[in-house]
């Protein structure tokens, strides 16, 4: 008796997870781009941070070969993107709208980090 009950619980949980993932995927968008240094050379291994302030979400990715990054299955909304690699970083991008079925491209350029200045 307990064996059949346990099997039913597993089936119900699996169905719930599958349905949730399908619903999430229908509203998911994608963001992609290329990270380059100041001379225009692609940078692999740079950290790419995507932030959605409305939902208080932050995602981190690493640029791959040829400096490319791809963030898929993102909840729809406005995102800002920034990249950091070694002693260089990019400016924060302007907010971009991510929506289902329409990948957005944000290319970033890394420049030397500015030293913090002391007030006064």
Q: Keyphrases for this structure?
A:
single chain; 120 residues; alpha+beta; Immunoglobulin-like; 6-stranded antiparallel β-sheet
In total, the number of strands is 10
Please state the second-level CATH architecture: Sandwich
Shape: globular
- Total helices: the number is 1
Give me the CATH superfamily.
Answer: Carboxypeptidase-like, regulatory domain
- β-sheet strand percentage: 35-45%
Q: Please, how many domains?
A: 1
Textual characterization of the structure:
With 120 residues, the protein is α+β, with helices and mostly antiparallel strands. It has one domain (29-112): Immunoglobulin-like (Sandwich). It is built from 1 helix and 10 strands; from the N terminus they run αββββββββββ. Strands 2, 3, 5, 6, 7 and 10 form a 6-stranded antiparallel sheet that branches. β5 (77-85) and β6 (88-89) form a beta hairpin. The longest helix is centred in the first third of the chain and has 25 residues, at 2-26. It is globular and about 40 Å long. 19% of the residues are buried. The model is unreliable at 17-25 (pLDDT under 50).
